[in-house]
Specification:
The chain has helices at 2-14, 18-30, 35-54, 60-84, 107-119, 132-142, 158-169, 187-192, 202-212; strands spanning 94-99, 122-125, 146-150, 177-181, 197-199. The chain has 216 residues and is α/β, with parallel strands linked by helices. It folds into two domains: 2-84, Methyltransferase, Methionine Synthase (B12-binding Domains), Chain A, domain 1; 94-212, Rossmann fold (3-Layer(aba) Sandwich), CATH 3.40.50.280. The protein has a five-stranded parallel β-sheet with strand order 2-1-3-4-5, with helices on both faces. The two termini are 35 Å apart.
C-alpha cells in the first residue's frame, strides 16, 4: 500500500498532474505513509524532470508544470512532517532568492527556487519586484549562504548591480555569495557587477550554488 502511494506521488509529478497533486498528497498522509518518504518521492521525481530538462528531453513548460505540482503537494507533506516532529535531512545551505525591483517575471526564478529546494537547500523566496532594501534586510535577518537574483528585462538588470553595491555599503558583501541570472544576463555582466556566479538555466543555477559552497 505504502509503495503504491509513493509511486502515485512520483506519477503526479512526472505526469504533470496539477489537478490531483494535493489530493494524492493528502491520501498519502491519511494512509500513514512516512511524510519524509513522501517528500523524498516528490523531490526525486522533480529531480528526474530537471535532469531531463537539462538533457533537452523535457522543455520549460514541463518544468513549470512539475513545479506547480510540487507547490500543490509539498505543503501538505511538509505540514505532516512538522506535526510528526520529524526532521528532514540537513540543509545544504540557505538561499534567498527573488526577482529584482521593476521586474514581475516569476517563471525562471520559480524554477531555480524549486530545484534548489529539491536539491536540499533551504530557500527563502522573496517573490517578484523585490526592492534592494528588502534584499538587504532579508540577508541581515536570515544570514543566508547565497543570494540569487533574477532579472528578465534589460531595463532591470542594473538592479542586480545596485543590490551588490548595497551589500558593499552595508559591509556584508563578504558574508554571502551572489548568483545572478535572467535572459539579459551573461557571464560578462555578472563579472562586471562583482557577482560570484551566473547561471543560464535553472539546473545550472543549482550546480553553481553547490560549487560556490564546495558541495560535490
Amino acid at each position: 500500500m505504502s509503495s503504491d502511494i509513493l509511486n502515485q506521488l512520483k506519477d503526479v509529478v512526472l505526469e504533470f498532474d496539477i489537478e490531483n497533486a494535493e489530493a494524492v498528497a493528502k491520501k498519502a498522509v491519511e494512509a500513514g505513509v512516512s511524510p519524509l518518504k513522501a517528500a523524498a518521492a516528490l523531490t526525486g521525481a522533480i529531480r528526474e524532470v530537471g535532469d531531463k530538462f537539462g538533457k533537452g528531453e523535457f522543455f520549460l513548460p514541463d518544468l513549470v508544470c512539475a513545479a506547480e505540482v510540487l507547490k500543490k503537494a509539498l505543503p501538505v507533506i511538509n505540514s505532516a512532517i512538522e506535526k510528526n516532529g520529524e526532521k528532514a535531512n540537513k540543509s545544504l545551505g540557505k538561499v534567498i532568492i527573488g526577482t529584482v525591483y521593476g521586474d514581475v517575471h516569476s517563471i525562471g526564478k520559480g524554477m531555480v527556487a524549486t530545484l534548489l529546494y529539491v536539491a536540499g537547500f533551504e530557500v527563502i523566496d522573496l517573490g517578484i519586484n523585490v526592492k534592494g532594501e528588502d534584499f538587504l534586510n532579508a540577508i541581515k535577518e536570515n544570514n543566508p549562504d547565497i543570494l540569487a537574483m533574477s532579472a528578465l528585462l534589460t531595463t532591470t538588470a542594473a538592479e542586480q548591480k545596485n543590490v551588490v553595491e548595497g551589500l558593499k555599503k552595508e559591509g556584508i558583501r563578504d558574508n554571502v555569495k551572489v548568483i545572478v541570472g535572467g535572459s539579459p544576463i551573461n557571464q560578462e555582466f555578472a563579472d562586471s557587477i562583482g557577482a560570484d556566479g551566473y547561471g543560464a538555466t535553472a539546473p545550472e543555477g543549482v550546480k553553481i550554488a553547490k560549487k560556490l559552497l564546495g558541495i560535490s
